[in-house]
Design a protein that fits this description.
The chain has about 350 residues and is of the alpha/beta class. The chain is built from nine helices and 13 strands. Strands 2-10-9-8-5-3-4 form a seven-stranded mixed beta sheet, sandwiched between helices. The structure holds pyridoxal-5'-phosphate (PLP).
């Protein structure tokens, strides 16, 4: 039996995609091999690789002056790759709106003069800093677009006279994005794209260079751009899964359709939480994430009981991150509306029994 999996990542993949992968697993497209076994230089894999890149370009409407790279190491490796590739004057400004943007900031501090331009730590990251001022002479501004742990999302792109770099690990493919407003977008796969193993980097071509002199070959975006992300062995199976997910999203109507579905799904849950005097979500309303919904009951003992009883009822991985406590429902693209409706029914029952 499949459960409703509210994990923040790795998280649910569309059932249709999993079934297709199962069908293809032993013999991909008449090759007599699994994608996990085939050479990344074979014509079978080459088609997968090219289709995946083309679908990313089409669905995210990526302009021609941007390269799309498929790399390894997760979003965390990009925390280092960003400064290593972009620091020329040696300066960058960071907005810290949660745990991952803080990690990105800390990592960048190893490589240059990095300034904390704004932080929402003062209110335990329950809002997104706004009207932030940046230095004039910097190489880039970095933000984390969706804060997976705290359930907040940027609904604006910072204004500055340098490229904006965004970690979109937990919001990519959930809604359309105007790529032209960013210099670099990066995202780990394990929420809305594919299983863990591949990392998406979209980078404006004029920002691709040799980077800092000690930038490792494998972290240089130039290395990947010049080799169509085939400099070394790519995470072929994750890329194949990403291709299936992208085909699936295209069939559903692309990212405009996904945005509508995601807004409706999130509204169901937020509206219920807001109407209840038992559950609370403390994020500023205008900054709420469509993908990660943290909430608490009136006390920590009840939170613990909620998590245990939810798991027994088939709602798994709903425990909040240890930094926040309580619960967190991660409702990425692949979480069906029925999963949220069923969760709300469970929440109502739990409230009645424990009020
Ligand atoms: C917003 C965000 N950035 C970065 C990361 C770290 O990603 P990875 O595990 O791919 O390094 C995560 C992981 O959950 C995340 O949610």
């Amino acid at each position: 039996m499949r459960v409703y999996n509210f994990s923040a990542g790795p998280s649910m993949l569309p059932l249709e995609v999993l079934e297709q992968a199962q069908k293809d697993f032993l013999d991909y497209n008449g090759s007599g091999m699994s994608v996990t076994e085939m050479s990344h230089r074979s014509s079978f894999y080459d088609e997968i690789h090219k289709e995946c890149l083309a679908l990313f370009r089409e669905l995210l409407n990526v302009p021609d002056n941007y390269d799309i790279l498929l790399v390894q190491g997760g979003a965390s490796t990009q925390f280092a790759a960003v400064p290593l590739n972009l620091l020329k004057k040696g300066k960058a400004d960071y907005i810290v709106s949660g745990n991952f943007s803080n990690k990105a900031y800390q990592e960048a501090c190893r490589y240059g003069d990095i300034r904390l331009a704004a932080s929402s730590k003062d209110k335990t990251f329950t809002y997104i800093p706004k009207n932030v001022e940046f230095r004039d002479d910097i190489d880039y501004v970095h933000i984390c677009h969706n804060n997976t742990i705290f359930g907040t999302k940027f609904n604006y792109v910072p204004e500055c006279n340098c490229p904006v770099v965004a970690d979109m690990s937990s919001s990519i493919l959930s809604e359309p994005v105007d790529v032209s407003k960013y210099g670099v977008i990066y995202a780990g796969a394990q929420k809305n794209i594919a299983p863990a193993g591949v990392t998406l980097v979209i980078v404006r071509k004029d920002l691709i260079s040799d980077g800092m002199e000690f930038c490792p070959t494998m972290l240089k975006w130039k290395t990947q751009a010049e080799n169509d992300s085939l400099y070394n062995t790519p995470p072929a199976f994750a890329i194949y899964m990403a291709m299936l997910v992208l085909r699936h999203l295209k069939k559903l109507g692309g990212l405009t359709a996904m945005q509508k579905i995601n807004q409706e799904k999130a509204a169901l849950l937020y509206d219920y939480i807001d109407s209840s005097d038992f559950y609370t979500n403390s994020v500023v309303k205008e900054d709420r994430s469509l993908m990660n919904v943290p909430f608490v009951t009136p006390n920590a003992d009840l939170d613990k009981k909620f998590v245990q009883e939810a798991a027994k009822a088939g709602f798994v991985s709903i425990k909040g991150h240890k930094l926040v406590g309580g619960m967190r429902a991660s409702i990425y693209n692949a979480m069906p509306r029925e999963g949220i409706v069923a969760l709300i029914e469970f929440m109502k029952k739990f409230e009645q029994e424990n009020k």
